[in-house]
Design a protein that fits this description.
The structure is a homodimer. Chain A is of the alpha/beta class. The first copy, chain A, is built from five helices and eleven strands; from the N terminus they run αβββαβαββββαβαββ. The interface between A and B is medium-sized, with 34 and 34 residues.
Chain lengths: 196, 196
């Protein structure tokens, strides 16, 4: 997605530890027009599939997910960080958080992820594939079907994409960052081999 | 907002401790059409003001905030739960979390809240006014102006509205829950005294 690639080139910053800082438009301050454009692109990529629910994970996935849900006219659920007093009837999984350097327990109410659900999973980043692993785990627990996964930005050098390919998941990333170490960020469109 | 009042009456559930469970459409599973409708209502209520930024707090405020930001064509920022390794250049405040029964540190990057900002603060709930207090604190630290605050649901018996009135804040709530103890939820539109 050209506008996203250009935005990352203009405003993204590379921090140590393989972190790409895009907090001026993706995951702290949000550009609502860009989020809507991202939603439209996900509709183009996944709209032909029998999707009846969007799933994301709090917090940065919510904005692109709700836009996609609005455009596809399907309910949108966000996986929550588990609270100590979370009620019963939840599926629980864990996600490794690199910013906290620990596993974080997450959950989804079992009423909102069922064998009838055909899921499009949306998130801001595909890095090592940790949130994707969590979604796969929750889908297995619930009997839901994953129809696809869409990510705003993929950091290809962190290999989450290779994992999803091995798992046979249909996924797309709207911008691919191939190198954070160079003076200028190496950002490009999704590889042609994966494109629709 | 009649459709929200009806939805709360149909799907809301009262839990012990003054908790209103609306996780089938507001704060876990989301109805994107309802979120867009909420955004339109906030535009009706606040669109005449010189607002140039929406601020909310993760995670449940993000969906109504991004819809409002899209409709108003202004950037949208969410206040983040503070990470141990959060970088410098942030304003820090705290919010009391009733689900965790502890104060949680939150932050906003100082680039995204400045004296030039005229803020509309959006959140899913107005209860005791804790997130609103946090917004007021962050606005004081940064020099930003709060033009208004919009909440999807107000629990009037928890007195956050009285606090905001005392502070002279221009605020609106799209549905008011006046009692959770009765067999049927007491939900109504905003009082006429506050309505535009």
């Amino acid at each position: 997605m050209e506008s996203l690639v250009k935005r990352i080139q203009a405003e993204g910053r590379s921090l140590k530890g393989g972190i790409l800082k895009v907090d001026s438009f993706i995951n702290h301050q949000l550009d609502p027009n860009l989020m809507m454009e991202v939603g439209k692109e996900f509709v183009r990529l996944f709209g032909h599939l029998p999707i009846n629910k969007i799933v994301t994970i709090e917090a940065s996935g919510i904005a692109p997910a709700i836009m996609t849900g609005y455009l596809m006219q399907v309910r949108t659920v966000f996986i929550k960080k588990k609270q100590p007093n979370t009620l019963a009837n939840v599926y629980v999984s864990s996600v490794h958080s690199f910013t906290r350097d620990q596993d974080v327990e997450v959950c989804i109410n079992s009423n909102f992820l069922t064998p009838d659900d055909h899921i499009l999973f949306i998130d801001d980043f595909l890095a090592y594939g940790n949130t994707a692993r969590c979604m796969i785990d929750l889908a297995k627990q619930s009997g839901a079907t994953i129809e696809g996964m869409g990510f705003c930005i993929e950091k290809t050098f962190q290999k989450g994409g290779e994992y999803l390919t091995e798992q046979g998941i249909n996924f797309h990333s709207l911008a691919c960052v191939t190198d954070l170490e160079t003076a200028h960020l190496s950002v490009c469109d999704e590889p042609a081999s994966r494109k629709l």
